[in-house]
Amino acid sequence: METATAKVALAPRQSPSATLRRQLFRSWRVVLGGVFLLIVVLVAVFARQLSPTDPIANALDNRLRQPFTTTADGRYLLGGDTLGRDILSRVIWGARISLAVGLTAVLVAGSIGILLGLLAGYYGGKTDEVIMRIADIQLAIPTLLLAIALIGVLGPNLRNLILVLGVSGWVIYARTMRGVVLSLRESQFVEAARALGVTDARIIATHILRNAWTSAIVIGSQQMGYMIITESSLAFLGMGVPPPTPTWGGMIADGRDYLSLAWHVATMPGLILVSTVLAVNFFGDGLRDVLDPRLRL
Q: What CATH topology corresponds to 80-295?
């Protein structure tokens, strides 16, 4: 009995990071979504090496070329668009815009929302009232409509697009973080820190934020797909990154008038867009289940 007890006592304990990795790899959503996203990221990073041709070079001889009818040099695997540009090359380069906008907009929105949510939840009172009323006002305006209005004022370019999407998406972070902070600020470890004379800024940064970061990560992973969709929607409406820069939404817009004649012009980038957003959602859902099991349905 003593030997068995000693073996149990001496058994190595797994670190929290090792346990988290094991749980992540056991989730088929995380694995499936993560593998697809990794492929998309690698394609975007190595777009110059993987692209068969210049994505903005016109070749009217190959205008509306059907997919899978490649030329001698292997181009036009996914067909040609209305100006004879290689759709595969444009999809590859378009991945850079979609991922850059989605990730950067999430970082901007998360930074704003987390900061305001921490302040509203920790201090309460008028600070909470002002921040939450601003959030309520923004929630009353459809996100896409707000983005269109801001882009119309600022002008369509990559920097303004990221700024607009970041400003439009901070509310969900702020409201979620506020709720988490309200449950944490009366905790015993926070009261003990106050009693020791720890400043509010240090309490927020080292005690509250450390226990609330998982909620922000889950929201960010789920919001990235929404940001990609919104960027594509604005590009479809002609209010995204201006041409000739290839974007998935802009490519879909280019092919909408040719669906009966050349279905592939809009369908190919549309399939890539849908697949990427589904992968992001799978990854976000799996991450939510692992980091916060209370949210499982």
A: MetI-like fold (1.10.3720)
Cα separation values, 91 from 104, 119, 123, 174, Å: 20, 42, 47, 34
pLDDT tens column, 88-118: 999 999 999 989 988 999 999 999 999 999 9
Which helix (H) or strand (E) segment holds residue 179: the answer is: helix 170-184
* Res. 1 pLDDT band, cuts 50 70 90: very low
- 122 near 200, Cβ under 8 Å? yes
pLDDT digits (tens, 9 = 90+) for 184-212: 888 888 888 888 888 888 888 888 888 88
The residues pairing with 204 across neighbouring beta strands, listed in sequence order, are none
Residues 156-179: b if buried by 16+ CB within 10 A, e if exposed: bebebbbbbbbbbbbbbbbbbbbe
228, 276 Cβ separation under 8 angstroms? yes
